[in-house]
Every structure is written in structure tokens, then in C-alpha cells.
């Protein structure tokens, strides 16, 4: 029986990709845990047994062992344990550098952003009674006076470890300042940062147009649905309510958002204006990339963007993609680029839920009756997603609400309507003469 399973694995290239990705993930996981020696021994012993019993070809075993150790070694080169700022903390004084993330926060009287200096990267929190942070923009250089500290560490197993979270971004310190202590510095800005800033200015202009007619927290909720909470953070109490009800995924830019954006683009160009297929797909890929950059490039939206780009690239050359193999490949690529993604809750939830929906696709197969198919999607998609996400939700958030399934089913009808209205309104808001009419 075992031999038959292994033979199927070797012969099925798609399943082979999944196993390869899992082994690479184990290599990354080994680096971040105290199980590195144990996992190294297990992988090596299983490989030796597989070769000695002729279960698997020696070449494949050697390849998998190489993949495991490559994942481990890649982490050792990319992951830092400290920087010069960490060595200076605690410290009170000035730092100079560049804002390298979208200034954002769950609180109206403060904003947070990653700040790159010559000595390392830190997370800056700027407070202001006026609640106006328009002077802070991604890409700009500033001199900031304040206090440099090390983040708090978890002291019990269930507590959120802020220091560990920041290490995922190669950040080991936090810096606190008042808005009055932030001074703009004239410095040449690279083209990529000018581009980032123009995208974020566009998003801010869209939000400011809606701000005239939507008050908090409705504005942040709509902004989270359209752009994700990495770009538009809802108030802390609202986010907690969404977590408790199992609806946090609404506020996280993900595959649904990316699919909506491309779907709108394809419909208007292909269906209404009869633009050639390849031009529609190519320009649609560019639009998706721009949208992903406007969201702040969270792990879930990166996953969705890369997957749909691969699928669309396959359409251009008349090649189909296997969903699970593609998901495995994207996971490997993201972890090769940044192994710390494995500690990101958004990364874990996004891949786990997507994998669960893919392996359960047989339950979602449509019958000839569209009404029956709609009802199946309405019930089974939230049910499958909640089943796969439940362990992580209980582990990270210490909560799981029994009514979350019913809440997710209840929003199925409304969420597409709200998303459609939000996306269309956002697109039209780019044109100032009609932005007020649109909102």
C-alpha cells in the first residue's frame, strides 16, 4: 500500500510539487523552532529508508533532502537576529531615515510606519492630538526626535509576542515620537518611492472623497473591504468585533479582491468595448499589480496576486495550471524571498483556507441548476473555510464563535454588492470632477 502511494506521488507531477513545497516549508519551520535537529534527522532517516527499500528513486530522495536543507540554509542567510538600533536601545534622541511602509494605525490619534535608517529598521509610532498625519508619506525622509525601545516579549504561551512579530519584518526596535518632533528632510527620492507615493496619494484621495459622506468606522470598514486592513486599518474595537465573529477576512485584501478587480477590468474591456483578448489579459495583469501595491502588499494579497498572474500568463500561452501545484509553487517562492512569512498569520490563513477550498472542490461542483449551485456555494464555501481556519483562529486569537458560520453565510449576498460598489466608486473617484457625485 505504501509503495503504491509513493509511486503515485512520483508519477503525479502536481502532487510531487505539493510534497516538495511541504519539505521546503519543514526546512524553514526547522529554523524557527527548537526542532531543527529532530526534523533534520527524521528527513535524513526517511530518505535512507526510502532508498534502501526501493520505495523512491535515490535522485528524488537526494533532491528532497537538498530542498529541506536549502530552506534551512536560506533562513540563516536572510534572517537577522539584531541590528545596530537594537544594540543602542533604550535610547532617547534623534534618528534620520526614510518611511518604507504606508503610515497606518487602528487609533485616530496615532500612526505607525516602518522607518529605515542607516543603522537598521524600526517601527515608529507618531502621536498627534490633531489626528492629522498628512505630513507623513511613504518614501519621504525625516528626522524624528523621540524614544527608542525594544518591543515587549511574551511572558506566557498564549500572549501575543510583539517582538517576534516585528522580527518577521527584520525589525527589532520601536520608536515613539510626537508629530511636532517630526521634521521633513529634503533628499533625492528614487523612482520606485515616487511611484509608491503616487499610488498611495491616489488611495488617500479616494478615501478623502468618501470621508465627506461616510463617518468612522464605516469609512474604515469600506476601505478595509476595498484595500485591506494593511492600507486602511479599522478602529481597534471594530477589528476585535470582526475577529470574534469570524469575519476578519472581510477586512483583509485577498483573492476575492484581486478576482473582483480583474473581473471588472475584463468585463469592461472585453465585453463592453470588445478589446482583443490578449490585450485585455495583459493590461489586466498590470492593473492587478498596481492594486496589490496600493493595498500595502500583505501576505494574503501577494499570494493571490502571484497565483492569478501565473494563471493569466498561462492563458496567454494556452496552458492550464493545476491549482494545488500552483499554490505550492507560490508558497515556496514567497518563503524563498522572505522565510519570515511562515510566521505571518495572514500567510498561514491565506494558504490554509485556499488549500482547503481546493481539496474540497468536489463538494463545490455545480449541477445544471444555477439556483442549487448558488445555494451550495453559499453554504459550503463558508463551512469549508471555517473548518480549515478554526485551529489557527483558536491558537492565535484564543476564540472561536459558534455563530461565525452563520455570520459568513449571511454576508455572502451583501459582500459582493458592497465590494462592487466600493470598487466602482473608488475607480470613479480618481476623476475629481465626478468624485463627489459618485460618493
- Lateral arrangement of strands in the main beta sheet: 1-2-3-5-4
Structural class: alpha+beta
Our measurement of the CA-to-CA distance between the termini, rounded to an integer number of angstroms, reads 62 Å
Gyration radius from CA atoms, angstroms: 24 Å
Biggest beta sheet attributes: 5 strands, mixed, barrel
Q: How many β strands by DSSP?
A: 6
Which blocks of ≥5 consecutive residues have pLDDT under 50? none
Q: What oligomeric state is this? A: single chain
What best-fitting shape do the alpha-carbon axes yield? globular
H-E order? HHHHHEEEEHEEHHHHHHHHHHHH
Helix content, binned percent? 55-70%
Number of helices: 18
Strand share of the residues?
5-15%
Mean pLDDT metric:
84
What does this structure look like?
With 439 residues, the protein is of the alpha+beta class. The chain has 18 helices and six strands. The protein has helices spanning 2-11, 13-32, 36-52, 58-78, 84-88, 162-167, 191-211, 218-227, 236-244, 255-272, 277-294, 299-316, 323-337, 345-359, 370-397, 404-411, 414-429, 432-438; strands spanning 91-99, 110-117, 120-127, 141-149, 174-178, 182-185. It has a five-stranded mixed barrel. Helix 10 (255-272) packs parallel to helix 12, helix 12 crosses helix 13 (323-337) and helix 14 packs antiparallel against helix 15. The protein is globular and about 70 Å long. The model has no long low-confidence stretch (mean pLDDT 84).
Amino acid at each position: 500500500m505504501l509503495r503504491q502511494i509513493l509511486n503515485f506521488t512520483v508519477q503525479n507531477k502536481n502532487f510531487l510539487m505539493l510534497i516538495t513545497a511541504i519539505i521546503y516549508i519543514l526546512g524553514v519551520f526547522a529554523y524557527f523552532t527548537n526542532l531543527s535537529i529532530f526534523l533534520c534527522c527524521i528527513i535524513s532517516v526517511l530518505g535512507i529508508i526510502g532508498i534502501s527499500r526501493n520505495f523512491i528513486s535515490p535522485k528524488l530522495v537526494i533532491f528532497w533532502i537538498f530542498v529541506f536543507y536549502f530552506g534551512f540554509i536560506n533562513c540563516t542567510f536572510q534572517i537577522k537576529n539584531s541590528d545596530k538600533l537594537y544594540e543602542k536601545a533604550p535610547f532617547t534622541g534623534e534618528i534620520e531615515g526614510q518611511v518604507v511602509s504606508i503610515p497606518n494605525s487602528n487609533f485616530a490619534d496615532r500612526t505607525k510606519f516602518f522607518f529605515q535608517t542607516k543603522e537598521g529598521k524600526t517601527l515608529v509610532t507618531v502621536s498627534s492630538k490633531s489626528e492629522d498625519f498628512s505630513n507623513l508619506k511613504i518614501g519621504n525622509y525625516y528626522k524624528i526626535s523621540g524614544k527608542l525601545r525594544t518591543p515587549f516579549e511574551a511572558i506566557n504561551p498564549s500572549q501575543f509576542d510583539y517582538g517576534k512579530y516585528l522580527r518577521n519584518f527584520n525589525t527589532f526596535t520601536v520608536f515613539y515620537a510626537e508629530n511636532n518632533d517630526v521634521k521633513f528632510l529634503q533628499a533625492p527620492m528614487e523612482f520606485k518611492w515616487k511611484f509608491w507615493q503616487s499610488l498611495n496619494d491616489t488611495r488617500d484621495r479616494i478615501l478623502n472623497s468618501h470621508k465627506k459622506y461616510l463617518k468612522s468606522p464605516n469609512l474604515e470598514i469600506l476601505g478595509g473591504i476595498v484595500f485591506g486592513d494593511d492600507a486602511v486599518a479599522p478602529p481597534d474595537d471594530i477589528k476585535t468585533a470582526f475577529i470574534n465573529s469570524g469575519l476578519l477576512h472581510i477586512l483583509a485584501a485577498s483573492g476575492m479582491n484581486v478576482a473582483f478587480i480583474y473581473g471588472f477590468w475584463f468585463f469592461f474591456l472585453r465585453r463592453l468595448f470588445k478589446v482583443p483578448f490578449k490585450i485585455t489579459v495583459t493590461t489586466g495583469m498590470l492593473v492587478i499589480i498596481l492594486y496589490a501595491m496600493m493595498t500595502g502588499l500583505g501576505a494574503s494579497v501577494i499570494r493571490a496576486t502571484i497565483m492569478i498572474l501565473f494563471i493569466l500568463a498561462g492563458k496567454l500561452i494556452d496552458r492550464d495550471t493545476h491549482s494545488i501545484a500552483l499554490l505550492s509553487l507560490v508558497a515556496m517562492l514567497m518563503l524563498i524571498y522572505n522565510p519570515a512569512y511562515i510566521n505571518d498569520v495572514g500567510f498561514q490563513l491565506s494558504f490554509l483556507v485556499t488549500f482547503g477550498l481546493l481539496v474540497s472542490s468536489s463538494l463545490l461542483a455545480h449541477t445544471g441548476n444555477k439556483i442549487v449551485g448558488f445555494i451550495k456555494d453559499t453554504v459550503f464555501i463558508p463551512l469549508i473555510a471555517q473548518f480549515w481556519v478554526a485551529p489557527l483562529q483558536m491558537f492565535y486569537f484564543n476564540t472561536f464563535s459558534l455563530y461565525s458560520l452563520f455570520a459568513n453565510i449571511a454576508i455572502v449576498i451583501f459582500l459582493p454588492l458592497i465590494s462592487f460598489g466600493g470598487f466602482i466608486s473608488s475607480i470613479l473617484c480618481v476623476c475629481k470632477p465626478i468624485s463627489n457625485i459618485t460618493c
